[in-house]
Amino acid sequence: MLKLTDVVTHYGPIRVLRSLNLEVHVGEIVCLLGGNASGKSTTMKTILGVVRPTEGRVEFEGQRIDGLPTEAIVRRGISLVPEARRIFARMTVWENLAMGAFTRQKAPPAELAEDFERVYALFPRLNERRDQPGGTLSGGEQQMLAIGRALMARPRLLLMDEPSMGLAPALVEQVFDIIQAINGQGTTILVVEQNATVALGIASRGYVLQGGRIVVHDTATALLAADHIRRAYLGED
Amino acid sequence: MPIPASGWQRWLAWALGVVAVVGPLVAPNDYWIGVMARICLYATLALGLNVVVGFAGLLDLGYVAFFGIGSYLYAFLASPHFGLHLPFLAAVPIAIVGTAISGIFIGAPTLRLRGDYLAIVTLGFGEITYLLLINLDRPVNITGGPSGIIGIDPPAFAGFALSRNTEYYYLFLAALALALFASARLRHSRIGWAWQAVREDELAARAMGINTTVAKLQAFAIGASFAGVGGSFLASWQRSVFPDNFLFTESINILAMVILGGMGNLLGVVVGAALLVALPEIFRDLQAYRLLVFALMLMVLMVFRPQGLLVEEARREEETEAAVAPEPEAGAGG
Amino acid sequence: MDILQILPQQLVFGLALGTVYGLIALGYTMVYGILFMINFAHGEVFMIGAYVGWWVLTGLLQAQVGGLHPAWVLPLMLVHAMLFAGLLGVCLERFAYRPLYMRGATRLGPLISAVGASIFLQNAVMLTQGARMKVYMTSLLFPRGWRVQIAGANVSALVVVMVVVAGLMMWGLHQLVQRTNLGRSIRAVAEDREMAAIMGVNVRRVIGVTFFLGSALGGAGGVLVGLYYTQIDFFMGYSAGLKAFTAAVLGGIGNIRGAMLGGIVLGLVESLAVTFMNPAYKDVVAFVILILTLVFKPTGILGETVSDGEKV
Which of B3, B34, B174, C308 has the maximum number of C-beta atoms within 10 A of its C-beta? Predict the structure, then answer.
């Protein structure tokens, strides 16, 4: 479904991604692991067109999307749950969700109502806080809002950038259970994570990113089992 | 003297120097000597604004206020208006000091403001100054109102009063040379480094122990004092001052001189002044379109060559970097 | 005492003028909220709106169209002015500003370009329309006899209409921004431009729309001011622009309700000040308020509505 081929991305003179190759197939959960400054967020930005790759190709459902503006890429069915949530703090929960459905303005109101219901079903707390400004929500609630907002677009591919960051362990489990549930409902997911164990727990395959390059690529079970790989590349966990 | 190090600018500087010295001798007529004098006058003003905008990075849109204050101060001290007729060499320094003090007053409220706001506030002060100049003839006649002050004494040294344009020209040229010298020395002095730090990153400057408040006020005061010189010269040359000499458009005019040449670049400022005084003279017939063309030039300049005609190298790099770097990330690296 | 007699009158004038200031201020505030830049040329957009309104009114009068009644003439003037002003705003953004803020140039660039645009428009109008002022034949549209009594003040119907029109437009904008998808997208772009793009918002288009709306409102303000003062000239945008900007800052830049509130406060204060002191210093009032606000409460009465970090 998603395919990155030999992608190179720069920030000014600095080469952040070096010849990156990555694939995500329909229905999978794939995780992208790596420590700080390994290039994880840049990978996300490259896929979404926020940053343009200097070399290489990004293809989605068989068509090239590198070079397209972000708005166009998103309209093809990719959504992002960004690092650090980045919900619209001054807008209410409902308005944030409505913004999530921005690309589907032409959809019949009944469908949109369904989507709201679905998100509220997944995250009942959001329903309670419907009219509160996003900025007043707790960290965990904001994470749920960010996920819900991304779901409102009915994406076929969901990108998640470090969903566990800043959350208490119990909450992290909850979030990843939800991610699994979303996948069960038919959404393909690419998760970027520092917390390898929990990410590999739900993924089918994993890539390890280091210094802008994929160093290891295997099934999740294999990665979890290989201690030396965990220690060498995934650091403490 | 501020001789630029790099190649063609060096040539240009020397060429200009030569032209400046022999100018009046080869000028076609007295009118053009007057134009040259005006160039020197405005170049001095532009150098003053350059201290504020170019060195310290404070966008002052109301510089004309200092120009006006300097002019009127000289007029108060050397005309029939208040009956004072101080000699030139006494009146000018007093005007300079007075203008510098006004610089501190106008700069003080702006100390905590961001770029755009600082610009608007200084613009506001420029307007207030104009309104005061034009209205303070009631209840007590301080400024002479819309009709201004006339009959101002010309510059006089040891009984010899200036009367011909050529004489004025050399006086203004000498002042310009002094201004250039002062600017160059300031740039590489401690104050100059402090200004540069403030211009680049005020927070970091403060963290380094620089008293940014003092630095900014110094910039305003010193920049204003240049205008004090320019203002005194205008008053004593024109032998009169009117509020309409000091409209907002004049602030923009002087700012354009600084930007056109390249902010912070002394030679550039002089070139900018020369162009913006001389070109309207050359294209006299198109006088009606002068402002229109001027405005277009500003816009085009900003789009295509914001660093000015004589590029200041260091600044060039930071512009390129800013252009290439994408938007800052929200969270940690990646 | 004399003052007490004219006070209600002055207050009503102040209120009327204030709503118009608020209308123009909206243009500044919306653009600042979304781009972090002061659209210096907004005053000129307002001025051109006034000229367009004059053109429509004078055109109708010259064509000797009978039955001129403000009920249809006024909307006609407003629509023309708003469309023209709105499109002008879009052009400004597209050609004078976008090349600059897209490039991430220094803060100076867009501001200088805006100043250039402002001077350019002033002179363009002066050269094409003449330096002499134009007269709005308001009395032919709003006969002098139409007056109403409000709270002890005897005011002309025109003033009431001004307040109503300005109020309606501000209300309309508020509804648009709060309740529609477009409005949400504007707020999203103002808050977090990158994230809005990731939601699928066409950021450039939203910026253009913001300019259109803000400028259209400025143009409407121009028509109202033209009707009220009956004289317009190419330079009127300058002081009106600065005052409207003051209103925007006073209320809290980027904050739509703030712009409206700031406008009214400024109008009232100005009116009161003129009652008690030399009218020649009227414009100074606005500047003093601006300076005081920026020095003591830079976020304005209702607080700024801008996100962290500098944009443009």
Answer: B34
